[in-house]
Specification:
The structure is a homodimer. By secondary structure, chain A is mostly helical. Chain A folds into 2 domains: about 5-75, Arc Repressor Mutant, subunit A; about 80-115. In chain A, about 55% of the residues lie in helices and about 10% in strands. Chain A contains 5 helices and 3 strands; from the N terminus they run ααβααββα. Chain A has helices spanning about 5-15, 15-25, 35, 45-55, 80-110; strands spanning about 30, 60-65, 70-75. Chain A has a 3-stranded antiparallel beta sheet. The longest helix of chain A has 30 residues, at about 80-110. Chain A starts with a helix and ends in a 15-residue tail after the last helix.
């Protein structure tokens, strides 16, 4: 089962373009905080705050060795979000399948001599 | 190719729990604006605003017949978001595959007489 808060936290975290860019960068491999901060026109502290949000909702993790903090993607971090999208699609597909069955039923029960203008009735 | 703005608009739209709940409801079938507004403790105008955001970024569409506006899910509306997640996962998997190959190479070139404590070197 999905934890509502996980989906909510992931969507909120990734609605921010800088945080999405950080996740894009880290899905290609680990990076230090300095490396991650380099392309952004913002303070180091602001980047650290974004990293804390991402780490807080389980999208990344970080480890400090000596004075260097290295960040990595959390392999299962995107799962709640991917599951949410997959569930919406599953619901839609089930509906389309049902619609297809109704159309097939209407088609097979149709009298070939009858008018072709018979409207397909709601279930 | 992904349009950056599509992904951005979708994440922003779905970071709001009410809008996510509306998409959840509509993935099960079409609904009128009144039906959609009923479960929420907010003004009808506020719900209409949320619907406009969702329609603006292509997640839903609506049609007015007489005085009744009916909303439906846009079947391909979640595609940019699903693609973004799939791309991140593809990047991660490629990395893990590469890591697996490096480990396999290290394993096959290992001298069986040598110490088992030989560390696996970085690429």
């Amino acid at each position: 089962m999905l934890k509502y808060s996980d989906v909510d936290a992931s969507f909120r975290a990734l609605a921010e373009p800088t945080r999405r860019a950080i996740v894009e960068r880290l899905s290609g491999g680990p990076a230090t905080v300095s490396d991650l901060a380099a392309p952004f026109d913002m303070s180091f502290a602001a980047v650290v705050q974004h990293l804390q949000v991402l780490e807080g909702c389980g999208l990344i993790r970080s480890e400090k060795v000596g004075r260097v903090r290295t960040c990595r993607i959390e392999p299962m971090g995107l799962a709640p979000l991917a599951d949410w999208v997959a569930q919406r699609r599953a619901f839609m597909e089930r509906r389309f399948d049902r619609l297809g069955e109704l159309l097939a039923e209407a088609d097979s029960s149709e009298d070939p001599q009858a008018s072709t203008q018979t409207p397909i009735k709601d279930k």
